[in-house]
Amino acid sequence: MSFYEDMEKSLLEAIAMEKEMVTLEEKKEMPAPTFVVSTKEKELIDQMVCLRKEKNISQKQLAEITGNKQQSISRIEKNEHSPSLQTFCNILNALGYGLTIEKKVML
């Protein structure tokens, strides 16, 4: 990913956060205001990390496969950065998984 593509992606994600399209929660006990992704997103990312580790793929290898930087994978896995849906799906695809939507059973 080029510098300009990386910057464009970051700016689009910042806009999504500003427009509240991405749910953020304030992280308490930090010296400065710090926000992290919502619990549901964290759960999905944690599952992604487990899949990566089960396949014995390093962050560096995953970054090379998906065309990202290792630092970006690290920030995603630490929940310091919210990946775009495309990036998340690309990572899952590289791990041999996909994302599906299921209808909830309403009681």
CATH class: Mainly Alpha
Q: What would you say the CATH architecture is?
A: Orthogonal Bundle
Mean pLDDT: 81
Query: For this structure, what is the CATH homologous superfamily?
Result: lambda repressor-like DNA-binding domains
* Percent of residues in beta strands: 5-15%
The number of helical elements comes to 5
Strand adjacency order, main sheet:
1-2
Cα separation of the termini? 46 Å
Low-confidence stretches: none
List keywords for this structure.
107 residues; mainly alpha; 434 Repressor (Amino-terminal Domain); two-stranded antiparallel sheet
Structural description of this entry:
This protein is mostly helical and 107 residues long. The protein has helices spanning 3-18, 39-54, 59-66, 70-77, 85-94, and strands at 24-26, 35-37. The chain contains 5 helices and 2 strands. The protein has one domain: 434 Repressor (Amino-terminal Domain) (Orthogonal Bundle). Helix 3 (59-66) crosses helix 4 (70-77). The chain has a two-stranded antiparallel ribbon with strand order 1-2.
Could you give a quick summary of the protein structure above?
With 107 residues, this protein is mainly α. It has helices at 3-18, 39-54, 59-66, 70-77, 85-94, and strands at 24-26, 35-37. It starts with a helix and ends in a 13-residue tail after the last helix.
Task: Give the topology, please.
Blueprint: H1 3-18, E1 24-26, E2 35-37, H2 39-54, H3 59-66, H4 70-77, H5 85-94
Antiparallel strand pairs: 1-2
Helix pairs in contact: 3-4
